[in-house]
Specification:
Oligomer: single chain
Number of strands: 15
Strand content: 15-25%
Helix content: 25-40%
Radius of gyration: 24 Å
Shape: elongated
Strand order of the largest sheet: 6-5-4-7-10
Largest sheet: 5 strands, mixed
Distance between the termini: 26 Å
Number of helices: 11
Order of helices and strands: HEHHEEEEEHEEEHEHEEEHHHEHEH
């Protein structure tokens, strides 16, 4: 591509050549200069010049390789690799009951993680502070400087604007209207990206979970107010205002009984944030308590209807179920049966494979996407973190 460009801005040409070369090195395997020439289609003098600049920037290192068997003729081959350790990224989940942080290098390889339980009643300032503390603790344990961070992804419940403001967040006290992006960007010198938790869970499952290689996917983050994230052709579908997948609001369209009432065994609604109370109901149901079994069945039926509505609209290849409902032994069969009943082409249904880290891993992937935009950009010098 770059060899066909003639004239124009030579610095732009250099940046294009650098991006092409970095892509060829991105998988982390050491390659020879000759291999890079073949992989990139650039001339040898061009690759030599680009490599020199990338080594100087710290993004590429020359490495020693053992001698090949047999006699070598001419100059020994020069080997190079991408320095994934040149920077780091973070994935953060700010949840109702916990904050989780995952640290990785520039190739997305995990270095460490840290989780901290938090009180569901924390106000917004305390909850954001808990997230900052968790980040600081993980960086301290890993021996990583905050200045080495290239991007931070953050997952949050609620409807999140592109700038990181929470338009609506009923799951957390004081969350609606919070400019979460602005609060967190004070703590970092790199881009901070905020996204809805269910959206990030969908991204994570597509990256390294149950939905690898699938284009059209729905992830259901099941709880008392279920949410969903959707991928269409492998890309996140946020909707015009970021509210796509808010299936927890479907009771407003005729299903007037809320999940807090559906799972109640006393006639009094459960506290929407009290997952321990939900767990007690589900435990009683497994033990054979008839009232609890009826409550569980009501909730499952409601969840099935919510998921079916989204499946009818999107026609996904796969529905992945996560959140605490993933622990319901019989959530999959009712979903499969009802989706077969309601949908012209029922999707596959499976449980999340990433467990409690699914949102933080999705946030990490969001940060990695940002890093790759920086690495492969041609409108700024390679490696720029601006």
């Amino acid at each position: 591509m770059a060899d066909r460009l003639t004239g124009g801005d030579s610095s732009l040409l250099r940046r294009i050549n650098a991006a092409v070369t970095l892509r060829a090195l991105r998988d982390g395997q050491a390659v020879t200069l000759t291999q890079l020439v073949g992989d990139t289609g650039l001339s040898r003098p061009t690759v030599e010049g680009v490599i020199e600049g990338l080594v100087e920037s710290g993004l590429v290192a020359e490495v020693e390789q053992g001698q090949d068997s047999g006699r070598q003729r001419g100059r020994p081959a020069r080997w190079f690799r991408f320095r994934a350790e040149a920077g780091h990224i973070l994935g953060v989940e700010i949840g109702v009951h916990a904050v989780r942080v995952v640290l990785a290098d520039l190739a997305g390889q995990q270095i460490g993680s840290f989780a901290r339980d938090v009180d569901e009643a924390l106000d917004a300032e305390e909850r954001v502070g808990a997230a900052r503390t968790a980040v600081a603790e993980l960086l301290r344990k890993a021996g990583i400087s905050r200045d080495s961070l290239w991007a931070v992804g953050v997952g949050s419940p609620g409807i999140v604007d592109k700038d990181g403001s929470v338009r609506l967040g009923t799951a957390l006290p004081g969350w609606t209207g919070l400019d979460l992006g602005a609060r967190l960007r004070r703590s970092f010198r790199c881009p901070v990206l905020i996204e809805n938790d269910a959206n990030l869970a969908a991204i994570a499952e597509h990256w390294q979970g149950a939905a690898v290689g699938m284009g059209d996917v729905v992830f259901v983050l099941a709880g008392l107010s279920p949410g969903a994230g959707s991928l269409i052709n492998g890309r996140l579908h946020r909707g015009f205002g970021g509210a796509a997948g808010e299936i927890g609001a479907l009771h407003l369209l005729g299903q007037q009984v809320t999940p807090e009432r559906l799972l109640s065994t006393t006639g009094k609604p459960l506290d929407p944030l009290d997952e321990a109370a939900v767990a007690r109901v589900l435990t009683l149901a497994r033990e054979g308590d008839l009232v609890a079994r009826d409550a569980k069945e009501r909730f499952l039926q409601r969840l099935v209807h919510d998921v079916a509505a989204l499946a009818l609209a999107i026609d996904p290849q796969l529905v992945v179920v996560g959140g605490w409902a993933a622990g319901l032994d019989d959530v999959l069969e009712p979903l499969r049966e009802q989706l077969a009943r309601f949908c012209l082409r029922p999707p596959e249904v499976t449980l999340s494979t990433l467990g409690e880290d699914v949102v933080a891993l999705g946030a990490l992937r969001l940060a990695l996407d940002q890093v790759e935009e920086q690495l492969f950009a041609v409108d700024q010098p390679s490696g720029s973190r601006g």
